[in-house]
């Protein structure tokens, strides 16, 4: 998702003064001066017509509190919309909305114009949400007294994505949530403060060692605090080993990666079938050819058709038409170097999980369970081999790296 080169925010609120201050300082002030963002705050009461400039009323059906009336809001939106081009994407800040996170910030920063409607009291008349709002956004699972602070928070987070707002463009690269990792710990002078020294490596002046230390800290920190993020992170074998070490040997079940003669091989323990022949295939693939078990899928070819054909041709498994249960495609659009940050050629990853009902070939019929290890080559070339086990049940199939890595090495050795 590409951020806009500049974003206009229109804010509709009954407390316009609250926006003075936070958006007039520091990074936000500079971004506004440089025209990278424009923030126009509108007082909702300008669109009221009574002496008391009323914006709220009692809720139908009774109950505590007041509700924001629809008329001034609709009038205001209709007046604000034509003030600039294009029409704004209208956001209502609400604890009932989609939770604001890095992905949503990115989505929002792809809009050239956002209109933030700020709720107060018990909220707004439901018809506003139904007919005038594109998206409801929450800042977290708690309630604050009004949407002004949530709106400022959103503006700040979205503005940071606009190129140039942070000055040194580099400062975004290793920020928390980049590459699905948290940031490394930071230190400044003095080198020793109250007997607490800064880690030696940071004083060494050895740039590569500093980079390595930071990368490792990012990984360990993310694993300790936000293991959920790691699922999206692209890690090298060495990095996986760091993590495995820190957790006593268990990290990323089912994944292994080895370099042989300059070729990176990835293995995912990906195929598990029960006696009924239900197979889950999980692939990591490159840019131009998507690989399926034992074969290839060309771009544009229907995944289900190719799966059926490849299963039959390459793995000698009978997959009859209609037996494919479903096909899941996950496209991770980020760039990732296979062999480490800053090294090697970047490749785009697509992950495809295919859930297939297949008939196990006769020679394996006795085996109630089989276990497949995939071998993947570079971004373009893949090979796959199955290994079959007579394991008693699925639970006994161990997919931890400690188990998978030696198997992968044995398979690679056998190929030489
Ligand atoms: N009665 C409402 C909460 C009203 S709080 C409910 O229970 O859902 C008043 C206003 O503050 C809301 O309309 C909303 O605009 C804003 N607000 C409160 N909590 C928020 C949150 N977590 N995220 C975004 N906006 C919030």
Would you write up a description of this structure?
It is built from eleven helices and 18 strands. The protein has a five-stranded parallel β-sheet, sandwiched between helices. The protein has a four-stranded antiparallel β-sheet with strand order 10-11-17-18, with helices on one face. It is α/β, with parallel strands linked by helices. Mean pLDDT is 72; it is low at 249-299 and 321-401. It folds into three domains: 7-159, Alpha/beta knot; 173-233, Trp Operon Repressor, Chain A (Orthogonal Bundle), CATH 1.10.1270.20; 255-415, no CATH class. 26% of the residues lie in helices and 27% in strands. It has helices at 26-33, 70-80, 102-109, 126-132, 148-159, 200-203, 207-225, 227-230, 237-246, 303-313, 401-415; strands spanning 7-13, 37-43, 56-57, 67-68, 89-99, 113-117, 135-138, 192-193, 196-197, 255-260, 263-273, 278-285, 289-292, 295-298, 324-337, 346-357, 370-376, 382-387. S-adenosyl-L-homocysteine binds next to strand 5.
């Amino acid at each position: 998702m590409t951020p806009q080169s500049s974003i206009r925010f229109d804010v509709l609120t009954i407390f316009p003064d609250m926006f003075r201050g936070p958006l007039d300082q520091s990074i936000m002030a500079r971004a506004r001066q440089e025209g990278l963002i424009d923030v126009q705050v509108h007082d909702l009461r300008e669109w009221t017509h009574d002496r008391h400039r009323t914006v709220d009323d009692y809720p139908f059906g009774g109950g505590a509190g007041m509700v924001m009336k629809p008329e001034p809001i609709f009038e205001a939106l209709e007046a604000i919309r034509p003030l600039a081009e294009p029409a704004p994407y209208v956001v209502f800040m609400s604890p009932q909305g989609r939770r604001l996170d890095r992905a949503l910030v990115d989505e929002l920063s792809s809009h050239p114009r956002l209109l933030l409607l700020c709720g107060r009291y018990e909220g707004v008349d439901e018809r506003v949400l139904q007919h005038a709002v594109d998206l409801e956004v929450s800042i977290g699972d708690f309630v604050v007294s009004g949407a002004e602070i949530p709106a400022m928070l959103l503006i700040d987070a979205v503005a940071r994505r606009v190129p140039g707002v942070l000055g040194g463009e580099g400062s975004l690269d290793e920020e928390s949530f980049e590459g699905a990792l948290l940031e490394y710990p930071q230190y400044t002078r003095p080198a020793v403060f109250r007997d607490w020294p800064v880690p030696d490596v940071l004083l060494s002046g050895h740039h590569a060692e500093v980079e390595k230390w930071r990368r490792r800290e990012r990984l360990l920190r993310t694993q300790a605090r936000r293991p959920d993020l790691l699922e999206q992170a692209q890690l090298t074998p060495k990095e996986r080993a760091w993590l495995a070490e820190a957790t006593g040997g268990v990290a990323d079940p089912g994944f292994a990666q080895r370099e042989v003669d300059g070729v990176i091989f990835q293995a995912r323990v990906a195929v598990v079938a029960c006696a009924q022949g239900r197979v889950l295939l999980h692939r990591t693939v490159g840019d131009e050819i998507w690989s399926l078990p034992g074969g290839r899928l060309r771009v544009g070819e229907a995944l289900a058709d190719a799966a059926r054909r490849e299963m039959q041709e390459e793995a000698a498994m009978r997959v009859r038409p209609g037996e494919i249960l479903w096909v899941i495609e996950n496209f991770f659009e980020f760039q990732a170097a296979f062999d480490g940050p800053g090294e090697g050629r970047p490749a785009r990853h697509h992950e495809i999980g295919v859930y297939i009902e297949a008939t196990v070939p006769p020679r394996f019929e006795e085996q109630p369970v089989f276990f497949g290890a995939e071998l993947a080559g570079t971004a373009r070339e893949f090979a796959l081999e199955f290994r079959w086990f007579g394991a008693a049940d699925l639970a006994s199939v161990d997919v931890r790296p400690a188990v998978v890595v030696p198997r992968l090495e044995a398979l690679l050795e056998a190929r030489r």
